[in-house]
Write a structure and sequence with these properties.
The chain is an alpha+beta fold. It contains seven helices and 13 strands.
């Protein structure tokens, strides 16, 4: 979760504790022991809010700019003050936010544009694949304690690109590559009540010196700027990596 989306996410959820939304310090993450209980809520992705990609030749003919908001809404017969109209406006605003220091980003409106961005980041001859949080057995999302099944394992990759699906009229993925160091970890959990298993992807931002000193994340974790911030990538959010991937125990 990049700076812009993380700030919005935690301003919205600032009434709950950091653990409940999968937000940790690096010391907390690396200190997780087998059998430890973590109170977390894992939402299930509402696929109706994230329609499929359009073909690039179609997507390129449709304006994608806040300055063209009225034309976009008219084209799709969406009322400006409707919930859908407000979602369109919010996504366009977020996509046009200035990139953070050391960040390269795109709001990809087609699969082709997404893959082209990844090829530029990783290199034209480099293979890449994505990893994400998986819910192999989850059925009904409930807030419950999840037991740690094994120590966190680091996923080593020379470069990582995070992609977040944005609610829109067709598929839009906000993807960004940060020059500052990030680390990714796997965490295996099982729910106390439901027995649901979750294969969790946790991303740690190792350098937060460019973040605002008033960032909501720092307040929630009771830490200061420059400290490491780790957070769960919820279902549907992807991290693209370079194989071969090596899983290394964090212990």
């Amino acid at each position: 979760m990049e700076n812009h989306n993380m700030e919005h996410h935690h301003n919205y959820h600032n009434h709950v504790g950091s653990a409940e939304i999968g937000l940790f310090t690096i010391a907390e993450l690396l200190g997780f022991n087998v059998g430890q209980k973590l109170p977390i809520f894992f939402p299930i992705k509402n696929h109706s809010l994230y329609p499929p990609f359009l073909p690039k030749k179609v997507a390129d003919t449709i304006p994608f700019s806040y300055s063209q908001l009225s034309n976009i809404l008219q084209f799709f017969s969406v009322f400006p003050n409707s919930p859908k109209g407000k979602v369109v406006q919010d996504t366009l605003i977020k996509c046009e936010l200035e990139a953070a220091q050391g960040e390269t980003k795109i709001c990809a409106t087609s699969l082709e544009s997404l893959l082209d961005f990844l090829s530029k980041v990783f290199g034209p001859e480099v293979d890449f694949k994505f990893i994400s949080t998986r819910h192999p057995t989850i059925t009904t999302p409930i807030f419950q304690n999840y037991m740690v099944l094994e120590f966190p394992r680091e996923i080593e990759s020379l470069r990582k690109v995070a992609c977040h699906p944005m609610p829109y009229l067709y598929a839009v993925h906000f993807c960004h590559f940060d020059a500052t160091e990030t680390k990714a970890f796997r965490l295996q959990l099982v729910g106390d009540i439901s027995g649901d298993k979750v294969d969790v992807l946790v991303v740690c931002h190792m350098d937060t010196s460019s973040w605002s000193t008033d960032h909501a994340t720092f307040r929630m974790l009771s830490i200061k700027q420059r400290n490491v911030v780790c957070h769960v990538f919820s279902q549907g959010n992807l991290v693209w990596i370079q194989p071969p991937v090596v899983l290394v125990s964090a212990m």
